[in-house]
Amino acid sequence: MTTRPLRPVAVIGPTATGKSDLGVDLAIRLGGEVVNADAMQLYRGMDIGTAKLAVDERRGVPHHLLDVLDVTETASVAAYQRQTRRTVEDLLARGRVPVLVGGSGLYVQAVLDELEFPGTDPEVRARLEAELTEVGPAALHARLAAADPAAAAAILPSNGRRVVRALEVIEITGRPFSATLPRPGPARYGTVLVGLDRDVAELDERVDERVRRMFAAGLVEEVRALEAVGLREGRTASRALGYQQVLAALDGECDLDTAASETARATRRFVRRQRSWFRRDRRITWLDAARPDLLDAALSLL
């Protein structure tokens, strides 16, 4: 009797498609453990606004790379790559199936593909960061869109740190930032990529409902608690969807109803960017997340 070799599964796709639940289902059926691939779920205390599964919702399945950063720390794709590859290799060595789950496309590719990490130039970085402070992330994002549309499509306009990094790489290498992104080949570890998506109108409704639930569940209180431990100083965490909008409301720039509607609007835009990013990867087999036999359909791909 032959046994199928162990290989990871990646459950990826846009926000609000149901990736987390399918990831747990697959881990239970395959004898696996979940490895987080959502950049914002790396942060301790950022639970409600990132739709992080509560402990009971994980149904006894170990989850890795959750709650590993303080909100004052800057998330690093390079550090994530090192930590996650170690985790995946440890799970495989122990006979466990790694189930990579998340919608942060660059983080997923950093694990599965050969991703370059160009050097930095402190003078260029300092100048761009000064510009960021002066004119804001949207203006720099517009400059990036003119110089490298593919990179701009993959980076939120509000993510000033990533925009600065992309512009820095363009300036010091003379190449588009997108040229440093991996060209998908055979996925590392023989990983099977399962993509979840839904009808656009349905997904927009799910996003709106998710945002309503987050605010009802205490997102504002969560942001206040994180503010007390340095959220505003966190370059990455303070720009997260929902958190940025609530901070603006706490500053008196808008009311909470506006913060909620802006969170939903920004999330819908982000979903479209995620879809565009993932659809370029021909290795992904896409499933309609609304199908009743979703788990069996995903298992049939392995």
From TrEMBL:
Q: Which cofactor does it need?
A: Mg(2+)
Where substrate binds, per the record, is at: 15-20
Q: Its Enzyme Commission number?
A: 2.5.1.75
| GO-annotated molecular function | ATP binding; tRNA dimethylallyltransferase activity
List UniProt keywords, sorted A-Z.
ATP-binding, Magnesium, Nucleotide-binding, Transferase, tRNA processing
Tell me which domain of life the UniProt entry assigns to the organism this sequence originates from: Bacteria
**GO:BP terms for this protein?**
tRNA modification
Residues binding ATP:
13-20
* Catalysis: reaction(s): adenosine(37) in tRNA + dimethylallyl diphosphate = N(6)-dimethylallyladenosine(37) in tRNA + diphosphate
Q: Where is this site: Interaction with substrate tRNA?
A: 104, 125
Identify the HAMAP family for this entry.
IPP_trans
**Belongs to which family?**
Belongs to the IPP transferase family.
Functional description taken from the UniProt entry = Catalyzes the transfer of a dimethylallyl group onto the adenine at position 37 in tRNAs that read codons beginning with uridine, leading to the formation of N6-(dimethylallyl)adenosine (i(6)A).
- What quaternary arrangement does the UniProt entry report? Monomer.
Q: Which PANTHER family match?
A: TRNA DIMETHYLALLYLTRANSFERASE
- Name-wise, this protein is tRNA dimethylallyltransferase
Taxonomic lineage per UniProt?
Answer: Bacteria, Bacillati, Actinomycetota, Actinomycetes, Pseudonocardiales
